[in-house]
Write a structure and sequence with these properties.
rRNA-binding; hydrolase; globular; 42% helix; six-stranded mixed sheet; Rossmann fold; coiled coil; P-loop_NTPase; alpha/beta; translation regulation
Length: 597
Amino acid sequence: MKPYLQVEDLTKSYGDRMLFDSITFGVNEGDKIGVIAKNGTGKSTLLRLLSGHESPDSGAITFRNDLRVGFLDQSPIFEPGTTLMSNLLPAIHENDHEEWNREDRVRQMLSQLGIDDAELIVDHLSGGQIKRAALARVLLGAPDLLILDEPTNHLDISTVEWLENYLSRQRITLLMVTHDRYFLDRVCNKIIEIDMKQIFTYDGNFDYYLRRREERLEALTGELAKVKNTLRREQEWMRRQPQARAGKARFRINAFYDLKERASVRYDERNIDPSEVKSSYIGSKIFEAKGVSKRFGEKVILDDFTYTFARYEKVGIVGENGVGKSTFIKMLQGIVSQDAGEWNVGETVRFGYYSQDGLNLPAGKRVIDAITDITEDVVVNGTSHYTPMQFLNRFLFSPADQQKYISTLSGGEMRRLNLAAVLITQPNFLILDEPTNDLDIMTLGILEEYLRNFKGCVIVISHDRFFLDSIVDHLFVMEGNGVIKDFPGNYTDYRNYLKELKAAQAQETAKSQQSAAPSSNREAKQRPRRMSFKERKEYEALTAEIDALTQEKNDLEAMFNSGENIPDIAEKAARYSSVKDILDEKELRWLELSELE
């Protein structure tokens, strides 16, 4: 494999805060690398260093000569007053799709990303549209190396799945930061983790990374226990031997302080700890929607929606961007009024609303003051009392962090603060609108565990498929024009249902076309078409191929789950992804032919 990029002894800090110290790694042609780390430990900074948007304190970043690099910033910028077309046309690589009309190429890429008008002025775009347009711009450049910072943020699920398939199938080298775990699992063949200011590389997909990482942490925990035991012995020596603190023992004293520093390292995975923050009591009556309707001009959000919400129900809301998901949950809380119908909410219901727009906490206040304004006494389980400072500690705001002004917080810190501000009131009905944006993977896992055990009701809007699968019992599928369908299952169940439905519709269409086709005689009209000799051979070959592919897929899964060291794991992971795609295609064709049996 050709080396595309080599990073050697890279160091970066902000003031006295060290992000990474002398890290070294390489990117080779064909690598599809996911970068994982806790919030605030340098993921985005690393990408900005590699893309040339920031400079390191020391170290070297070396690219292969003439390498085309495309970079998607987490907060992309376009020149005000310009159209999408004028921004994207120059991005097209000169050798890319020469047979295409260049403007058609721009329109096609935008359409695939959910934007239908290439002449839109960038000033009028939403944050989500800006992200999509920036993604289109970088993909149109056909780079050799693609660097993406949170590419799935602000994309609806269907667009995320399109991008996932696009990146999986393209022969492209990729380095990206994303919290979407299904995306990481299906696209990446290598994971780089930033932890304790160092780099740890795992040659496999996200599932492989999780297993190997657990082994690493167990080893580190064992090492830490040994260090602490040694430190206790050295502390005894230091107390007993004050006269030895010079001369020959100087090396041992230096080693003692080194041990002390190593023993202070925390391998604590919990970025937040809301485990003791319970919901207040919730009665049997939650809410009833009776004939609720809402429209904005010609756009229908709800049309005669009727539903009775049950106790402890956990539901996900999915649908394309713009169908009214956020409007729906605002109507439920009375933030937006309906045109007709009514919501009857139970007396014991206490909403906790985690909005993608945040809580509008005053930027000029300190963190501790903003939380104290909400309550000065946090009561947990009706008995335990916390001060606001103690409560914030559970969300990883140290005493120093609590003195920060809200205006200085990072995106991840703001998310944690908003979550703390919602949970501090002990709601029993949580309404979460895109809660996963800007949360790292470790924090997401803890939040999922909390929500699974939450003794109350939950409505969640999210494009994070793993998050939905982990939490919800069923889905409200908003299809547009006011139509909401209740699907009894999680998101993966729903996608499998759609896949089966699409296959069945394809078969029905094929049958209709066959029955409508003109025939030269009456017998041919009445008798269903049989397989041709060529189709019979294809059918028999497909049967054998599907059996072989299924066996290969099962063998690969068994290998991945064995826990054994797999030297060529990246190649095996890529083959596994390819086998699944080929198997889907061949099974669909087999179904079509089986109808002719």
